[in-house]
From TrEMBL:
Descriptive protein name: RING-type E3 ubiquitin transferase
Keyword Zinc-finger among record annotations: yes
Gene encoding the protein: 100634326
Domain of life: Eukaryota
Domain MATH: residue ranges: 248-398
Single Gene Ontology BP annotation: regulation of apoptotic process
SMART domains tied to this protein: MATH (SM00061)
Keywords tagged on the record: Cytoplasm, Metal-binding, Repeat, Zinc, Zinc-finger
Main location: cytoplasm
Sequence ranges assigned to domain TRAF-type in this UniProt record: 110-156, 166-223
Species for this entry: Amphimedon queenslandica
RING-type domain ranges (all copies): 27-68
PROSITE patterns named in the record: MATH, ZF_RING_2, ZF_TRAF
Amino acid sequence: MATSSRWTYGGYSYNFVDSDPPDEYLCHICTLVARDPQQVTCCYNIYCKSCLDTLKEKGQGFICPTCRSSLEGKYFKDGRVERGIKSLKVYCTNTDSGCRWMGTIKDIDTHLNSCIYQLVHCTNECGVKIKRSKLETHLTDKCPKRLVNCRYCKQEGTYQVITSISHLKECPDLPYQCSNEGCHEKIPRHSLGSHNETCPKAIIPCEYNTVGCNKKMKREEQEKHNEESMKQHLDIAMKKIDAMQHSSNQQVFKLHGYKDKKEEDKKWYSPGFYTSPGGYKMSLRVDPNGNGKGKGTHVSCFMCLEAGEYDDTLEWPFQGEVTIELLNQLEDKNHKKENVSFDESTPGQGKERVNEGRNTVGMGHQKFIPHEAWEFEYNPFTNCQYLKDDSLYFRVSVKATSKTKPWLALT
């Protein structure tokens, strides 16, 4: 049995079954059994056609390597030799891998097209070469480009995409362990907010936190706390009501239908209110889709003066400070707060008396809060949520100042 592997092109490099092939079948350039054998007319030797083509392309003179004669137009395909070569018996090139096939050179290509030991390229073009017998398993179980469905959200994609960190960061159904101590539920990412609103283990403030009860407890303990603290809650609620009756410079407004207003780029105005009895009349303007430098990226807020019943008796231009708060709807902290100052440096248009209707420009903040703020819709780590049930709540506090009529700026 003869083996020849010095060349990776040119003639046939097979393991022959019977014996070394006859010398008359060998190419005198690559020394392998000639592929597409050509006989030269000068010395009648045999060459592979590809070997002669390569020799000619070198541009160093197309000369016979054996007798040094010119080969231009002096060779032809030798059909008799080709028949003899094609009938030589060889082993499969995958013998070392376990194939036991033997046959003629004429039939080996047909065999290799079905040989289970032959290395083939993955048909998904993942770059892997694999034995044909293992291709199906590779395509089904191992190929990084095989199509799979995410085990959580069922989105279809290639294995390497569906299992990537980028997909897992976005997968809406990826399960998260509830962060509340004692709760062992695993919640899909998109349901974390709603779960936290009902989780019995969630730490929540007392229902009466807005009137002064600072107790925090697990949601499952809330009913018991309310029963035990009924008198305390009643007392602090009455004190809060009494305080509110004596103070009119703080207002709370609800903006409903936030998403439609944002998409339609609409402005929203609160009902008008007075800064104090006999005081200035104002309203809050909110641009859900932003204004100016905050356009398309932030919620913008502005305070607008309106024509009021007591304007004739007030000092103009208006001076004072307004605090705008976007309220956290889960507990009485982490409110988003910004101040708007009306003083000598404030442009005149924003603080001058309005004779009719309202000043629609107002003074405020174009970048009050970004749309993408983590707390905007829900932050489970800080228990903060500004947007809930498509609504925002704003609290406005006004402290007016007056040099000549200070009694009119007070409650």
